[in-house]
């Protein structure tokens, strides 16, 4: 527990340093439920890499929505929900707001994983199992052992599998929603592992990538 608490405090401090405006205010509020959720996710992922607290998105009506914990590579919206907010105090207005939130998640192609505080307290193993099952479904294209790969490499394989044909460096950056350095590192590693093949090239060193036959056979 001490190891998690130390890791969470360092993670929260960094998130606050990077936050401004309303998101910073959200991070200064009581994060009891979010901490419960983060403990489960920390045990699943082994770190807080690529997780963002109080991730801000703009709804179809222009209202800002905040996600408790968002995985920016896998595009998963994790939320910890208290009973009072979502049950005995529900109103027509709140109900409409919740439906709008769900539509917003769909529009952004987020995978939504809400957990209740009671589940996180009383059934933590079941909560973690649910996350592992989701990772197995969305993070592993065909059960070919992709879960052993680092998350960036796994997401490139997954995205390449659902977008047949050669893809560019910029495509990979868009899939990962990341800058050039980690994307270049992931692509280079996949080429070294013979899971990607480079195509093209020349005087300007322009090339694309495609799944290797070894990777295709594993899909």
Fold and architecture overview:
The protein has 219 residues and is α+β, with helices and mostly antiparallel strands. It folds into 2 domains: 2-138, Endonuclease, Chain A (3-Layer(aba) Sandwich); 146-218, Arc Repressor Mutant, subunit A (Orthogonal Bundle). It has 11 helices and 6 strands. Helix 3 crosses helix 7 and helix 9 packs across helix 10 (180-192). The mean pLDDT is 84.
Describe the structure concisely:
The protein is an alpha+beta fold and 219 residues long.
Pick out its properties.
219 residues, alpha+beta, Endonuclease, Chain A, Arc Repressor Mutant, subunit A, 2 domains, 4-stranded mixed beta sheet, two-stranded antiparallel ribbon, 11 helices, 17% strand
SSE string, helices as H and strands as E? HHHEEEHHEHHHHHEEH
What is the name of the CATH class of the largest domain? Alpha Beta
What general form does the structure show?
globular
The domain tally reads: 2
- Low-pLDDT ranges: none
Number of helices: 11
Specify the biggest β-sheet: 4 strands, mixed
Side by side, the strands of the main sheet go 1-2-3-4
Counted beta strands:
6
Radius of gyration: 19 Å
Distance between the termini: 38 Å
Q: Within the CATH hierarchy, at the fold level, what is the topology of the largest domain?
A: Endonuclease, Chain A
CATH superfamily of the largest domain: VSR Endonuclease
Which whole number gives the mean pLDDT?
Answer: 84
Structural class: alpha+beta
Portion in strands: 15-25%
Helix content: 40-55%
The CATH architecture term of the largest domain is 3-Layer(aba) Sandwich
């Amino acid at each position: 527990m001490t190891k998690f608490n130390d890791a969470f405090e360092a993670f929260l401090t960094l998130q606050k340093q990077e936050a401004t405006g309303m998101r910073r205010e959200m991070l200064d509020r009581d994060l009891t439920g979010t901490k419960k959720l983060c403990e489960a996710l920390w045990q699943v992922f082994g770190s807080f890499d690529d997780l963002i607290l109080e991730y801000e998105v703009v709804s179809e009506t222009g209202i800002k929505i905040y996600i408790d914990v968002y995985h920016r590579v896998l595009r998963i919206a994790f939320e910890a929900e208290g009973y009072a907010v979502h049950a005995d105090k529900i109103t027509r207005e709140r109900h409409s707001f919740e439906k709008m939130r769900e539509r917003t998640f769909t529009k952004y192609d987020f995978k939504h994983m809400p957990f209740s505080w009671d589940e996180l307290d009383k059934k933590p193993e079941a909560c973690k199992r649910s996350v592992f099952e989701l990772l197995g479904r969305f993070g592993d294209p065909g059960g070919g052992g992709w879960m052993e790969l680092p998350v960036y490499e796994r997401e490139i394989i997954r995205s390449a599998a659902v977008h047949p044909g050669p893809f560019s460096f910029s495509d990979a950056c868009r899939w990962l929603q990341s800058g050039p350095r980690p994307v270049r590192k992931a692509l280079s590693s996949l080429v070294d592992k013979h899971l990607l093949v480079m195509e093209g090239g020349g005087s300007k060193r322009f090339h694309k990538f495609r799944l290797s036959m070894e990777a295709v056979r594993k899909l």
